[in-house]
Design brief:
100 residues; 73% helix; elongated; single chain
Length: 100
């Protein structure tokens, strides 16, 4: 057992548990932010626009990214991307000391 502990550098055994905890806290905060953003999103009701023609491309649909819904959707994508990034970092920080 002492042989395994001797192979891990001292800075790694001190700093990686701290990085793991930071990643976990950030994951928890990002998950809460994601829940709030999803609840803030307005669900589209029945799409009765242009029922006769079947055309659903309206001026509002084309410029949706500048509206509140578009900004919330963009924030949701960014939050999900950050959750994926920090979960990968968490598992890397958790696994690297055992590789030495």
């Amino acid at each position: 057992m002492n042989f395994l502990l001797a192979t891990v550098p001292a800075w790694m055994s001190r700093t990686f548990p701290i990085f793991e905890r930071i990643c976990l806290v950030l994951l928890a905060l990002l998950a809460l932010i994601l829940v709030v953003l999803v609840f803030m999103q307005i669900t589209g009701g029945s799409n009765t626009n242009n029922v006769i023609t079947g055309n659903q491309d309206s001026y509002y649909a084309q410029n949706k990214s500048g509206s509140r819904e578009g900004r919330i959707t963009r924030l949701i994508y960014i939050t999900v991307g950050l959750i994926v990034l920090f979960s990968i970092l968490y598992f890397v920080f958790m696994k690297i000391p055992t590789l030495y």
